Amino acid sequence: VKVGLDTGSIGLRVLESQISDWSGITKHVNKVIDYGYMDGVNISGYLANSPITIGGISTNVNFMVITSVTCSSQKPNCPKNEFVANGRGGLIGVRLDNSGGIDDSVWNPLPQLPGNYSNGFIVHGKTDAPSITLGLTSSNQAGFELQSLLPYPQPYTDLAPYYLWDVVVPAKVSYPLSNGEMRESVGLVLYDTGTA
């Protein structure tokens, strides 16, 4: 199933209609899940578990099977049709914390990959050929400035199968005003591509 990558959400969430082979998938239909995105898209479904493969690397994870996609009442014109744009069958949220206290047993699959593949990832956002590198090495980190992250507390139930990290970090941002003057602002920013 082709899914979009989202650094601002958590967990693999796949449309039920896009799953053609159910062998090896354990359904937990009594574990109902509701999940919302900042753009107003709300999804509903249930918990499942299965081996998945990302870039040729396999692991067993919990994921959400999506049975409906709607808009929140606050954003009735949300981009719900974009959720399946370009043949996409869902989203893989790779956020590293648990902001909002999500308690649905669906976690970021990347830290659950085996071996060194779980130690980090690099998003290459070139619009002509976007990609993701799984697993950090000294050579693929060359040229990057690293930001230290603080630990983020685990939820009281349904603990994440990896360490959680606070992805709201201090930053200084420069931006142009309409008159061309540059302005700087210091504050907290969320590590998020803003794309899905």
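The record above closes out task 2.4. Task 2.5 opens with a second protein, given below.
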Amino acid sequence: KSSAASDVYKRQEAVNNLEASFKEGKRRAVMVLATGSGKTFTACMMAYRMLSFTPMKHVLFLVDRNNLGTAAATELKTFKLTESGKPLSEIFWVEQLTNSPIDPRTRIVVSTIQRLYSLLTGNTDSYSEEDEDAGMGHHEGDVVELPANPTLPPDFFDLIIIDECHRSIYSDWQKVLTYFNSCLLYTSDAADDLIG
């Protein structure tokens, strides 16, 4: 097989395996595809399929830095491998989280874990992308705590796609992610990142 054909096969196999895993009731899955082999494309396909063919209503696409969020939001909005051939953003509202509340029409939210924490705590301060990427004043080693009543219910997101931000989610910020206890967790990362 050619490299391109092999990548297409691997992406389809990843989607099929993830869907089978979720049908079996498993709550967590890890997809490992090499850098440049189409992890974001595969994540777009997964989001589209879950929102189209299951009762899921909201997907969170979690990234490590704003530039990755902008790239992911662009790819999600322009993804056209849909039944109608329309871009995903014409079928499901896609929003990159800011300091504003989530628009009620939104079905796919793209965010850093820092911005999501800010939303959950009700902090509407405006941060630059550099401040957000640097942790918005958070000091490494200080585990973040959520308020008694976060601004979103724990079942708001049905699926969380974690894209190459394992260092953030398994460190001081883990409570932000584990707050959403009723959702399926799907991670995508390059093998060298997982092993290293």
